[in-house]
Amino acid sequence: MKPNELFKHQDKAFWAHIRTLSEKLGYTVRGKNVIYVPAFDAMVRAMHSLGLDTDHLQNSNNGPSDYAKTLIAYFQYRADVLNDTVQGQLMDASEAKQLFDDTRLKLGSTLAMPMNKQKGEKKAVAYLTALVNMLIYEAIKGFEADFDPRTLTTITRQGRPLRTLARRVDGTFPRSVNPIAIWEIKEYYYTTTFGSRVADGVYETLLDGMELEEIQREVQDAPQVLHYLIVDAHYTWWVKGKSYLCRLIDMLHMGYVDEVLFGREVVHRLPALALEWRELAVRAGYHPVEVTPLPPSLPLETET
User: Does the model's pTM come out above 0.90?
Assistant: First the structure.
């Protein structure tokens, strides 16, 4: 999912309003399985209850100002895209297994597949990670990628480190030094609650996005690193974590990730993205390699 251009270039004060109102009024409709869209009156009451000014939200007739109308339009967009699109893209473990099996058969892939860290009957292929690996591997043939970076992502200039991200990501193209694209995978098929570990995954992605934003803001002619977040598990994200899905949509429009891919979306979107990365690699002077390094087959940190 790409950001909606209508909301992509709002300033940080706009997003402060979105976060403040979402926190005060809630993210979901109580007793219903849908994302909440606050009415104008509710927004004004919420601001007043927090001791905040509302003059900029009201026009001369005490109706919504243009600024307030933009806030409401974004709340409506966020609700619509989550209720109508994202919910249907998210899979449970059995659906993810079926999509993995179908995709592997279609591609004729013989790659060794990464396993989750579960035990007993829950031990299985890390389905989302395996799908990502297969799809990218097939699309970039002739170029390398790191499907399990064991090092921090670093941007260099004239052979010297310019910026190094604080944490490791789940994949880089073509490598972790001066990458064109990086991605993070959050799959939680067997998680029964939306706990702090899952929430931390959201904030880790936010941290990476803020660091990449700082590079663009502070370093003249800094190279752009495309940043992707890939998530799945219907129960964890939709049933238990709808407020965090809202945060993901906010993060996307704040510019901290270039795209968020939800569940089934990886099958049709990732190959197209990987082809775009190849074109960027050619322009940047990267050359094809004899053999694309294989994705890892060892268990990953991802909990599925």
Answer: yes
